[in-house]
Amino acid sequence: MLMILPFVLLLPACYYDVEEELYPDTGCATDNVTYSGTILPILESNCFICHSEAAKNGNVILEGYDNLKGHVDSGRLLGAIRHEAGFSPMPQNQPQLVDCVIEKIETWIEDGAPDN
Ligand code: HEC
Fold it and tell me: I need a labelling partner for 104 at 20 to 30 A (CA). Which of 22, 112, 113, 116 fits?
C-alpha cells in the first residue's frame, strides 16, 4: 500500500502536463480588436454573403454598424455564433467559426461593441 501512495500523489501533476500538451496556448490575439480592423473583415468573409444590405437572409442585416449593433444588443449575434440553444447556429450550414475568431468577437462585445 505504501508503495502505491507516491504514484497517487504524482497523478494530478502528470495529468496537468498532458492537458497542457493537448490544449497549448494558441496565442489568440484579442488585444486591439476593433470594429473596422477585426470585426468587419470577419463578417465580410463569413456572413455578408447572406447578411448584407442586399442579401438579408432571414431579414438579418449585419452590414453597417447600426444594423450589426442591434443584433449585438439583442444577444442574437453571440447566441448564433456560439451555437447556443434557442438560436440558429451560424454561419448557416457551415462549420462553426474557429475559437479565436469567436474570442475576438466576444472581446469586442465585452468592450461595449465600439464603432471604432
Ligand atoms: C448561407 C447563408 C448564411 C450565412 C453564411 C450566415 N447566415 Fe445567419 N442566417 C441565415 C438565415 C437563412 C437566417 C434566418 C433563418 C434562421 O434563423 O435559421 C439567419 C439568421 C441569423 C441570425 C438570427 C439568429 C437567431 O436565432 O435569431 C443571426 C444573428 C445570424 N444569422 C448571424 C450570422 C453570422 C454572424 C454569420 C457569419 C458568422 C452568419 N449569420 C452567416 C443564413 C446565413
Answer: 22
Q: Give the least confident one: 1-5, 65-69, 75-79.
A: 1-5
d(Cα 99, Cα 28) in Å, to the nearest integer?
9
Distance CA 105, CA 101 (A): 6
Query: Which residue's C-alpha comes closest to atom 26 of ligand 1?
Result: 87
Q: Judge whether 98 and 28 are in contact, CB under 8 Å.
A: no
pLDDT, tens only, 4-60: 555 555 555 555 555 555 555 668 999 999 999 999 999 999 999 999 999 999 999
Residue 57 Cα to ligand 1 middle (Å): 7
The grid coordinates of residue 61 equal: 442585416
pTM here is 0.83
Pocket of ligand 1 (CB under 6 A): 46-47, 49-51, 57-58, 60, 62, 71, 76-77, 80-81, 87-88, 90-93, 97
What are the residue boundaries of the structural domains of the chain, listed by start?
27-110
How far away, in angstroms, is 89 Cα from ligand 1 center?
A: 7
